[in-house]
Amino acid sequence: xxxxxxxxxxxxxxxxxxxxxxxxxxxxxxxxxxxxxxxxxxxxxxxxxxxxxxxxxxxxxxxxxxxxxxxxxxxxxxxxxxxxxxxxxxxxxxxxxxxxxxxxxxxxxxxxxxxxxxxxxxxxxxxxxxxxxxxxxxxxxxxxxxxxxxxxxxxxxxxxxxxxxxxxxxxxxxxxxxxxxxxxxxxxxxxxxxxxxxxxxxxxxxxxxxxxxxxxxxxxxxxxxxxxxxxxxxxxxxxxxxxxxxxxxxxxxxxxxxxxxxxxxxxxxxxxxxxxxxxxxxxxxxxxxxxxxxxxxxxxxxxxxxxxxxxxxxxxxxxxxxxxxxxxxxxxxxxxxxxxxxxxxxxxxxxxxxxxxxxxxxxxxx
Length: 366
Ligand SMILES: Cc1ncc(COP(=O)(O)O)c(C=O)c1O
Fold this sequence. Notes:
The protein is 42% helix and 14% strand. By secondary structure, the protein is of the alpha/beta class. Helix 3 packs antiparallel against helix 10 (255-266) and helix 12 (312-324) crosses helix 13. The structure holds pyridoxal-5'-phosphate (PLP).
């Protein structure tokens, strides 16, 4: 006799939404020469952030402040909201799980786009929600179809990422605002802005914390270059933010992560420089794609999704031929989007390798 799992957990497959590059390296028994698949920021954190981590490393014996007081206050003044409008957590991924837990129980309908960020779906499955997916249209999340699905299903939760992963496309603030205005007040929108810093200002609606049915999520993983530290935050109306405090892991944050995020937020000059480098790297990836006869989809993120021009099997073959050549990239999997591969920005030396290997991978792909 074994301890008995609750039926919901027993029924779930034990999958990992993303197989990490480390797992791939173990499997192929070799390291990648270009790590361009996980939408990380290879330009790294600011020197001021590294110095702050080094300065405080010896304090690791202390638990982190469970209220995230300093970071929350710094974020609040940066965003012109009150600290009570912000919850800090171990990355957007963790906050997504906490939000899903607040609005979803077994059988609850939850709306998202088919092929959108899979970690959200993973959390919905973990709480027994019923995912309702809407196909992309013209490589963008289809706002009017998402809204129709919300209304049809009377869904209490809808997820939308702007800009989006895996296509890198985005909507303008006016469109997002119209979507929010049309949402039933009983439906919570999770607006995932993980790539907000690399997107045009015109894509970001002004923060309006009087909207009790919008949670905006942001991260230090992308433009700030701190994916491994795990720090994200959600912005929303006070009552909705307070709900996170009822269930979050109060000692989940790492002390050095709090210090790193605080230092990163202070160094907006570095952020501006890095965003410039990300945009230049995006342009270079697009140029490499086009030099090989492929179409790069315009992106507002830290990656570029490249249309390989044929079907999903062909794009998968291109991806595998790149991986064989030590270039780690990923690809969208949903029908229609699966004709693409997705290449994250990186240092020039890594993009040089991508530039050398892409024509060879295309020649070898079938
Ligand atoms: C849309 C989106 N949301 C969230 C995340 C993860 O953010 P974090 O590192 O803060 O958990 C990613 C990372 O790829 C992403 O693409």
